[in-house]
Amino acid sequence: MDHVLVTGGAGYVGSHACKALAKAGFVPVTFDNLTTGWAEAVKFGPLVQGDLMDRREIDAAFAQYKPVAVLHFAALSLVGDSMKDPAHYWRVNVGGALNLAEAAVAAGCKKFIFSSTCATYGDQDGVVLDENTVQKPINAYGASKRAIEDILANFEAAFGLEHVIFRYFNVAGADPEGELGEQHRPETHLIPLMLDAVAGRRPALTLFGTDYPTPDGTCVRDYIHVTDLVDAHVLGLRWLLDGKGSRSFNLGTGKGFSVKEVIEQARLVTNREVPMNVGDRRPGDAAALVSGSQRAETELGWEPKHSSMGQMIRDAWAWGQKPEYKG
Asked: Domains plus CATH for the chain?
């Protein structure tokens, strides 16, 4: 069975990707420093506890497992923090990715899947964002991810490093079979924060800004179920292994939900009110981000089957009731 190196495989998206890879017949090798990931989420292959800032640790993982490809999820990802300390985001995200790309080339592993973000597009209200949209990030998180995309293009030209780039919109939900779910340290995502407030694990949900130029004044985002997201990564891996070359894909549903609309869906799913208060806008937040994902559907044959807002909230709510949830 072919091994695949999964950086950040102990995290939310990475752990779900490891499960999908195992189901597809691969052996996922998690490479994670466990700063924000969870060792108990590594259930589908070996764990290498290492740091992308240490090239020797990456080289050792390649030497031991000889992976046929890399799935790179590990990164700092808090927009607000990236606005306060951009140097840290550039150093960790770009420096770590550069170490990983160099190690992959040195090991002869020239299939690379990169977890990018819709934040590379910046704030372009009223525009459905597809892969041809001009990228103009407005925060250091998005800018660091955009820089890594450039690194991969340079490495392909120089060394033949073929890559698939996935630009995510808002990932939500949990494994429908209940083995995995979302739990960040710290938690910043709307749906788990909202459900924690409903369950009484936090006093209230804070709405960061109600004066955006959107129909109800709150931010609009395109949400995608984590299971659909990682299914696309397996398709992207097969795309590369079949020799189809480098490509970028957006992953979303093409439908935006405002924060208030998500809250209303949670009320319907849980049959409980969501306690909330209103705060100021967060620096770096775009008013609306909605995906055009036709390329992934047409070329990869990908279909977001689980990404209704009701199912994403139901699966997240079910995960939050499990004893292993650490909200």
From this structure: 3-171+223-251 (3.40.50.720), 173-221+254-320 (3.90.25.10)
How many C-beta neighbours within 10 Å does residue 185 have? 10
Q: Which of the 8 DSSP states describes residue 94?
A: I
In a structure prediction context, what are the per-residue pLDDT tens digits for the chain, which is 327 residues long? 899 999 999 999 999 999 999 999 999 999 999 999 999 999 999 999 999 999 999 999 999 999 999 999 999 988 889 999 999 999 999 999 999 999 999 999 999 999 999 999 988 866 788 999 999 999 999 999 999 999 999 999 999 999 999 999 999 999 999 999 998 878 889 999 999 999 999 999 999 999 999 999 999 999 999 999 999 999 999 999 999 999 999 999 999 999 999 999 999 999 999 999 999 998 878 888 888 889 999 999 999 999 999 999 999 999 999 988 877
Catalytic residues: 141
d(CA 219, CA 281): 10
- pTM, entire model: 0.94
The secondary element (H helix, E strand) that includes residue 69 is strand 69-72
Q: Which two tokens mark 150?
A: 């450039």
Q: Which two tokens stand for residue 18?
A: 């490891």
